[in-house]
């Protein structure tokens, strides 16, 4: 067991891969498998129409990109036309997801689909078993826990509000998404530190993505790379350079002072 001690770390900043087996394994496949049925069920609702409108606008902005799927307007000429428009939305969303796009239009629709899925019990945030006990221990020691993810704040709150451990939102002191800045840019971590009122060198950032770890280090935060099932592999240089953990039990953090 590797024990990592970080002096002066009074707050912790965590990326989602250290917590859950969810986005790649559950949430994104759910979107791909259920989007057509969701659109058919909710098409007449104002929220769904706003989502489609944003996707249509995004498709126009993307018109010069290879493979983009335009979303036609409806003329009200019947069920056949409606099915063609819905299929265009489905194809556009799947195209964006295949390219790992992070557009506001895509994230908004995904968030609304996940909200419905969580509320009906079709999806739960699967939390690794070492996570909740470790966070409770750190909070008792005076640490503060924040989430920074490429998933929207709304999606984060759904994930932890409807997790396999129940509603665990109370364990977190705040949430950040890419509105604060990209996770691969060091300035994002400086902005977060300023927002939470903490020096960057008093923050420990956990991630499974070396580019994010590098950006966080450039901002003078402490970093540990989390090795979990399903995560992308690391190069030999990355394994030797970064502090690696496979469980939160491997972290020892002194009490906040």
Automatic annotation (TrEMBL):
The keyword Metal-binding applies. The keyword Heme does not apply. It comes from the Eukaryota. SUPFAM superfamilies: HAD-like. InterPro entries: Enolase-ppase_E1, ENOPH1_eukaryotes, HAD-like_sf, HAD-SF_hydro_IA, HAD_sf. Pfam families: Hydrolase (PF00702). GO terms for biological process: L-methionine salvage from methylthioadenosine. One of its GO terms (molecular function) is magnesium ion binding. Keywords: Amino-acid biosynthesis, Cytoplasm, Hydrolase, Magnesium, Metal-binding, Methionine biosynthesis, Nucleus. HAMAP family: Salvage_MtnC_euk. NCBIfam families: enolase-ppase, HAD-SF-IA-v1. This is ENOPH phosphatase. It comes from Nothocercus julius. The gene is Enoph1.
């Amino acid at each position: 067991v590797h024990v990592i001690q970080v002096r002066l770390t009074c707050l912790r900043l965590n990326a989602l891969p250290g917590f859950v087996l969810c986005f790649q394994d559950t949430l994104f496949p759910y979107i791909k498998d259920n989007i057509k049925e969701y659109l058919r069920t909710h098409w007449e609702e104002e929220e769904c129409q706003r989502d489609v409108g944003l996707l249509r606008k995004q498709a126009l902005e993307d018109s010069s990109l290879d493979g983009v799927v335009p979303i036609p307007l409806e003329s009200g000429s019947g069920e056949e036309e409606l099915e063609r428009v819905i299929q265009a939305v489905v194809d556009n969303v799947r195209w964006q997801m295949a390219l790992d796009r992070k557009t506001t239009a895509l994230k908004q629709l995904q968030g609304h689909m996940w909200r419905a899925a969580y509320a009906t019990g079709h999806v739960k945030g699967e939390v690794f078993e070492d996570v909740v006990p470790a966070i409770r221990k750190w909070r008792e020691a005076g640490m503060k826990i924040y989430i920074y993810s490429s998933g929207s704040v709304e999606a984060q709150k759904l994930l932890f509000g409807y997790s396999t451990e129940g509603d665990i939102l109370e364990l977190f002191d705040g949430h950040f998404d890419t509105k604060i800045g990209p996770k691969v840019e060091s300035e994002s971590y400086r902005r977060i530190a300023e927002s939470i009122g903490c020096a960057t060198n008093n923050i420990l950032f956990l991630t499974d993505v070396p580019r994010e770890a590098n950006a966080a280090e450039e901002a003078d935060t402490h970093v540990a790379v989390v090795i979990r099932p399903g995560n992308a592999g690391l190069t030999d240089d990355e394994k030797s350079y970064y502090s690696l953990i496979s469980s939160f039990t491997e972290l020892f953090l002194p009490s906040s002072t």
